[in-house]
Amino acid sequence: MTKFPHDQFAKEYLQELLSPLGEVETSKDVTAEVREIDVWFQPTSFEGEYVQSLGLLGKMAATVAVIEPFRNPVNTEGIFSCVVKLLNSRAKLGRQTNREDQRLEERQLPRLWILTPTASELLLDSFGFRVPEESEGWAKGVYFLTQVWRVGLIAIHQLPRSPETMWLRMLGRGRVQEQAIAELSALPVDNPLRTNALELLYILQANLQANTPPIPAGDDEDQELVMAIAPLFQQHLEAAQQQGLQQGLQQGLQQGREEGQRMILESFLQVRYGELDPRTVALILPISALPVAEFTLLLVQLSTLPAGENEHQNVQILLAQTVMEKTFIQSGQLEEIPVNLIPDLLALSPDNLSSLLADLPQLSIEELMARLAQSLT
């Protein structure tokens, strides 16, 4: 197992996405001093539809590229190190063309892309990074040095939340990465990029688990990456879809998906918290009806809660909040959940809670509050 799982994931992830468009090398050595380029990309073909599907990453793949992803925000020395790699690789190309008595053309020159979660204005200004003209078509969060340098920097957490940036936001941190994972899981199941990316996320989680205990100080975010859940969820979802198709009923497809999500959530919670109490079981049923993207995001959120047999209450609060928000906020009945709603809901007996949740789709917020008041008196 690698000692640097996030770095390994970033290299393999970019290699997987870019390989249909050209030659990709990871950990490429340059100069006798042995400075490794994280990802070296050499375009060899242009598949218009595939390039478009990669969004911003596809636009980056239009030229030879040195790609340096950073898990933590890049600092001054990190940028200098990346620029040295760019200059060394350019010098190496120059020596090669001289030996072959050829001219080094501009299209052969690599562009450096620095991928960092965040970048302060002070850092950007100190190097002279500029925001490109809107007419150039780059997203917010993309910066360049002057043209002669061929250096671009992408502050991933500044990127707009859109399909065009999803593949790069997968290399972010915390909620930015979580949201990108949820968007990825919502892609069609037969999308090969979805399948391959989920497999790499699973490997990342396996590497993170192999490196514990202990998780290094400041790496609590690693606990949030429940990548092992994604492939498991995919398998159950595919099985549920197949079951529905065989029955020839759309209802069967929907029921199969919900049953698959229920099984995944139960298994996940049992592993982390032991035997589930009746209230938690009651809340799982309405949760299983969530859309795929929302369900996957909930799994990531659950993974951030403390694990252990005495932590059921936090799980119940998150599950109850999710159900109430789905029912009343997304439907436009409420702008926010009343302060006492969740505690009152969880104060019900398991039988009363199950009965109330079964009737919930037909209840207005006023009817729900009246039912709660009656049950608690």
Overview of this protein structure:
There is one protein chain. With 377 residues, this protein is an alpha/beta fold. It has helices at 5-18, 48-53, 56-60, 76-99, 121-127, 166-169, 174-185, 192-210, 229-247, 250-273, 278-287, 292-303, 312-329, 341-346, 350-359, 365-376; strands at residues 22-30, 35-43, 65-69, 111-116, 142-144, 151-155. Strands 1-2-3-4-6-5 form a six-stranded mixed beta sheet, sandwiched between helices. It starts with a helix and ends with a helix. Residues 212-219, 226-232 and 248-253 have low confidence and may be disordered.
Protein traits:
377 residues, alpha/beta, six-stranded mixed sheet, 16 helices, 6 strands
Write the layout of secondary structure elements.
Elements: H1 5-18, E1 22-30, E2 35-43, H2 48-53, H3 56-60, E3 65-69, H4 76-99, E4 111-116, H5 121-127, E5 142-144, E6 151-155, H6 166-169, H7 174-185, H8 192-210, H9 229-247, H10 250-273, H11 278-287, H12 292-303, H13 312-329, H14 341-346, H15 350-359, H16 365-376
Parallel strand pairs: 3-4, 4-6
Antiparallel strand pairs: 1-2, 2-3, 5-6
Helix pairs in contact: 1-8, 7-12, 8-9, 9-10, 10-11, 11-13, 11-15
Summary?
It is built from 16 helices and six strands. With 377 residues, the chain is of the alpha/beta class. It has a six-stranded mixed sheet, with helices on both faces.
- DSSP helix count? 16
Shape: elongated
Series of secondary-structure elements, N-terminal to C-terminal: HEEHHEHEHEEHHHHHHHHHHH
Strand element count: 6
User: Distance between the terminal alpha carbons, to the nearest Å?
Assistant: 57 Å
The stretches of 5 or more residues where confidence is low (pLDDT under 50) are 212-219, 226-232, 248-253
What is the total number of structural domains?
2
User: What proportion of the residues is helical, as a percent range?
Assistant: 40-55%
The proportion of residues in beta strands is 5-15%
Mean pLDDT over all positions: 81
Provide the spatial order of strands within the biggest beta sheet. 1-2-3-4-6-5
The biggest beta sheet, please? 6 strands, mixed
Structural class: alpha/beta
| Radius of gyration computed on alpha carbons | 25 Å
